[in-house]
Each structure stands twice: as C-alpha cells, then as structure tokens.
Amino acid sequence: MASSTKLSSLILFFACSLFIQGTLASIICEKLPASLCSFAIGSSGKRCVLENFKNEEGNLGYTCKTSEVVVEKLVGYIETDQCVSACGVDRDSVGISSDAFLTPEFTGSLCSSACYQNCPNIVDLYFNLAAGEGVFLPLLCEKHKSSPHRAMLELMSSSGGAAAVGPTDYDVEAPAPAPF
C-alpha cells in the first residue's frame, strides 16, 4: 500500500512537471501580467518591458510589451523573486537607468554573490547597460568591494564622456563575467 502511494505521488509529480514545463516554454510578453513582466524574456528571445498608460478614466495602468532587445541565451525565462530581491531591482519599475549605479546600495546588491553568481538575466541586463556607459561591470564590482565610494567616483568620471573603465585602468585582474 505504501509503495502504491509513492508510485501515485511520483506519477502526479511527473505529470505536473511536464505541465509546468509546457506552460513556461511559451512566454509571450503581451500575455504576461505586469507583475511578472520586468526581467522576463519571451520565447522569441526578446526582452519584455513594462510600459505605463492612462486608461479611459485617466488612471495609470501597466502593460507588458515585447522590446527589440534580443537575448541569445535564457529564451523564455522569467527571473525569480529571489533574484529580484538579491539584486535590489524592482519589477514595478518602468524602464531602467544607469543612474542606479550611482547608489552604493544598488551596486552592492548587484555585485553581491547572491545576485552576480546566480541571476544571469539581471546581470546580463545591467552588464549591457554599464557597457553602454563605458563601464565594465566586473571591474566596477571589484572596485565596489574594496571601496564603494571610490567606485562611485570613478563611475561618475567615466560616464561623462571620458575614457571607458577597462582592464588597463586598474591593477586588478578582471574577474570573468557570470556564466550565462
């Protein structure tokens, strides 16, 4: 009798896991609830973005749209709540800004091992955002660990059109980016 119960539980678990995998395999940004939109990647490989709009009553509402930004890895992926928390990001934010790097708390969360080593989607997004500002995220994280305020000062000086922060700017060896 006990083995029959175990077998039934195993079959139920297997059936549920197939259902969940089938459900998650097809992510269409426009069908995602606003609460899951940010930090999701559709089955098309394009990032989902949260946008706001005013409804007929003039109230602010949110909708999920497909962006033109393609992510070659992590197709059909929704970031976990644990990663959102560990990385210090907010699913309710509309758009992202490199200004977040100017706060030591955000950079500390993003560079923490809980985020940097375990949340490839968020790290990839902010890696690319930092690169657009001429900053190499692994070096920013390395500097932040030793001197958060100095890292912020160097970030501000590099973002204003000055030379990009790169491996020759520091006497430290650049850590390898997080595996994706």
TrEMBL record:
One Pfam assignment: PAR1
InterPro entries in alphabetical order: PAR1
TM region(s), chain numbering: none
Signal peptide segment: 1-25
Claim: Transferase is one of the keywords in the record: no
Keywords of this entry: Signal
Keyword Cell division: no
PANTHER family in alphabetical order: PAR1 PROTEIN
Protein name: PAR1 protein
